[in-house]
Design brief:
Blueprint (H helix, E strand, L loop, with lengths): L12 H19 L11 E6 L4 H13 L3 E5 L12 H11 L2 E5 L3 H10 L4 E5 L5 H15 L6 E5 L4 H10 L5 E5 L8 H9 L4 E5 L2 H5 L4 E4 L11 H7 L7 H5 L6 E4 L11 H4 L6 H24 L1
Amino acid sequence: MKRDFIHITDYKLSEIHDFLDTSVEIKNRLHRGEVFKPFEGKSLAMIFAKPSARTRVSFETGFFRLGGHALYLGPNDIGIGKREAVKDIARVLSRYNDMIMARLFDHQHMIELAETSSIPVINGLTDYNHPCQIMADILTIYEHRGNLDNCKVVYVGDGNNIVNSWLKLASTIPLDFTCLCPNGFEPDKATLKLAQESNLSSIKVTDNVSDGVLGADVIYTDVWASMGQKEEAEAREKIFSNFQVNSKMMNMTNKETLFMHCLPAERGREVTDAVIESSNSIVFDQAENRMHAQNAIMVKLMKESNS
């Protein structure tokens, strides 16, 4: 039987911790220079309807360093859901490869890809969620704090796919999660309801900056206008102007607060240069951990599909 990595809620708490443990193990082995080639003779098809240097480099390098070959398929190679049906792409790639990673716009395309593929599918991002990023995020927090207990994470900005993934995580792992956003930019209502009804985590959505960031262990932000929203950038800059993560905001937490950003950052907009370059910034540890978290996910899925 094959398993996919589409939503964090597809996995139990024990499995999430298993992913984290495997991430740490693989990271340590690579840092020690050990030869570890679980993907020898294996191939990964990477579908990029939505381009990203960071996602491509982390998956392609990670799969290569574990002994396999990763194949990049850009928008000009595959017009998923446009030039060719999703189910046809899934079936064809399943005949050539051992695993698929896709970074798509339409979340329904991701679901259909997983449903019709006979090999594991990993969600590298959709407009709805970004589960690999969140796995890298909690790995990074775990490394810096030693645990995830009583951790208050405050996301500042648009209630986007990152927030939806944090809410999915909060339905699986006990968290104190706040989405600090302007009115009208709240996260997906159904995903928010799911997280609240799980009664597992403390969930808050607010536009009150001083109340929202108080006591934060982590402040996390992203660009104000994501890919596909650039025509809204000028309007959003005015709406989000009070939600910039700067030294004043970091001081409002009344504790030593870590700063995170999934990158790329538009310095001087959603975050100041002073914050991203501060000693409390862990954004580059976070960026590195994308590769290690994704390696763990791929290793676990490949092992299960071959058992």
